[in-house]
Write a structure and sequence with these properties.
241 residues, alpha/beta, 3-stranded antiparallel β-sheet, 9 strands
Length: 241
């Protein structure tokens, strides 16, 4: 029998891109798992999840899905029969209930200030949403240096307004797959209290709140996030084939 190497699929969220995982990737040993960063289109939960599902179906062996922010909503929408998904890691991510949107979940407790910082750009079928560059640092990544935040503000990728308020269709993947949660105490997009509610109802195996951390906990605290991802990897003895 040979051991099947797990694959970690990283799913970035809105107002960011795959480079937001760079610090985490460097801390995931190549001998423990293969790593893929999924280029999340940020167009709609259903269509983005369909593309992620196609990727998961192409992977042999166990898969650990890791989602930041809106990326958590997308991985939650992957169907349970998509492949051998063995763990979900929510990195300041949305673990939605059926019929719930990201907008709904961010309001599970008061405190999100994201809506006040957004600006919209009309597109053919709706609106693209950006965080106003001058407010990006304090809203999104207050625990990062100003110079780094300024670069991220310029390179942010927009999400459609419809995607932020699109309810999850079907059963959430966390109902059948174990989950881990890590987030920042001072998350201004999704309040820490909302993260705790989502983790509790998902039956999280581990819930980590990083004191003083912002919404971009994977950028500001990559070691802690990498440790959480590694904790979710399956025991090599259980993935032999």
């Amino acid at each position: 029998m040979t051991e099947m190497t797990p694959t970690i699929v990283l799913v970035h969220g809105a107002f960011a891109d795959s480079a937001s995982w760079d610090g985490v990737v460097g801390r995931l040993p190549a001998d423990r798992a293969r790593v893929i960063a999924f280029a999340n289109p940020l167009r709609s939960v259903a269509t983005d999840a369909a593309l992620l599902t196609d990727l998961v179906r192409s992977i042999d062996g166990p898969v650990v899905l890791v989602g930041h922010s809106y990326g958590g909503a997308v991985m939650t929408a992957v169907p349970a029969d998509a492949g051998d998904v063995v763990a979900l890691v929510y990195v300041a991510g949305f673990a939605l209930m059926s019929g719930e949107s990201a907008g709904d979940a961010s309001a599970l407790v008061p405190g999100s200030t994201l809506g006040d910082t957004l600006t919209s750009v009309p597109i053919a079928d709706g609106n693209d949403m950006y965080i106003v560059q001058e407010r990006y640092h304090q809203q999104f990544c207050a625990d990062l240096p100003a110079e780094q935040a300024a670069l991220m503000a310029v390179s942010q990728r927009p999400v459609t307004e419809a995607a932020l308020f699109e309810p999850l269709g079907g059963a959430p993947l966390w109902r059948s797959v174990p989950s881990w949660f890590i987030f920042g105490e001072l998350d201004r997009n999704i309040p820490a209290g909302a993260h705790h509610i989502m983790a509790e109802r998902a039956g999280a195996r581990r819930t980590v709140e990083i004191p003083g951390a912002s919404h971009v906990v994977g950028v500001s605290h990559p070691a802690e996030v990498a440790d959480t991802v590694l904790a979710a990897l399956p025991d090599p003895a259980t993935v032999a084939s």
